[in-house]
Amino acid sequence: MSDTDLTLHEAAELLGVHYMTAYRYVRLGVLPAVKVGGSWHVTQADLQAFRDGASAAASTEQPKRRAPWASRLESRLVAGDSAGAWGVVEAALAAGADLDEIYLDVITPAMRRIGERWAAGELDIAVEHRATGIAQRLIGRLGPRFARRGRTRGHVLIGSPSGERHSLPTSMLADLLRGEGWEVSDLGADMPTESFVSAALLSPGLAAIGVSISSPEGAEAAPALCAALREAVPGVSIVVGGNAVEGREHALALGATHFAGSAREFAEQLASGDSLTPRAGA
Asked: Which residue, among 200, 262, 205, has the nearest Cα to 233 in the 3D structure?
């Protein structure tokens, strides 16, 4: 590949789509790409050909409509309107949003904003809990749509440490990874270290372990969990991420072998094989 060629991240930005959407184009064979050093690269010529083809198709197809879906969903969740919340999701899907976009660009920012408003004293905890319950039901309805047939790419175990009360992040991550062809065991929130380790030992062919941390309580319990996992299943990568993890150095300090800044990044690491091998010195 030459210096003028693009990474898949750069190609996605030029196309105006998310990385996982661009990766789906590669997986479906509509956007040619080659893997260089563990990451996908696209030539300028192939990107232009793809854009030309998309432009031609757009002349006969309805264009994808963008709208403030996250803020609309937030409004319905705060109001406790389950039917209205599902209506927002259906409208976003009808407008062309992909399933991963619903999870990562609609539900996630809506719930993050609600959490921020609760922390600022703008919302009662009962409103936040009610919104979480509705969001869980949305995920329950969408989850089966992520199922993929065929041979799995490997087994991934995910969960949160003892004291971590947030289960939405692992629920969404599990579905997103299943949509990418992985077999996923989701232990959910507040998992005692001993039980988490037991699940890892009972997972043959484990490709990676994901630990989601969204609160100070989860971060406090994470070092003991990561240490126990590293001892029990040496050689298996432990990917740590979540709102309470400040970055790669923080994740490594907690005992991780890898850091994922988002569910998309975790999926990307698995797709490239980067998080299947512990980093040197980890």
From this structure: 200
| Owner of token pair 């990874």 | 177
pLDDT digit string, tens, across residues 82-136: 999 999 999 899 888 999 999 999 999 999 999 999 999 999 999 999 999 999 9
Looking only at the bridges linking them, the beta strands covering 206-212 and 237-241 are parallel
Residue spans per domain, the chain: 6-58, 69-145, 150-276
Integer Rg of the chain from CA = 20
Neighbours of 238 (CB within 10 A): 26
The pTM assigned to this predicted structure is 0.75
Token pair for 158:
């995910």
DSSP E strand stretches across 163-269: 183-186, 206-212, 237-241, 258-259
Q: What CATH architecture does domain 6-58 belong to?
A: Orthogonal Bundle (1.10)
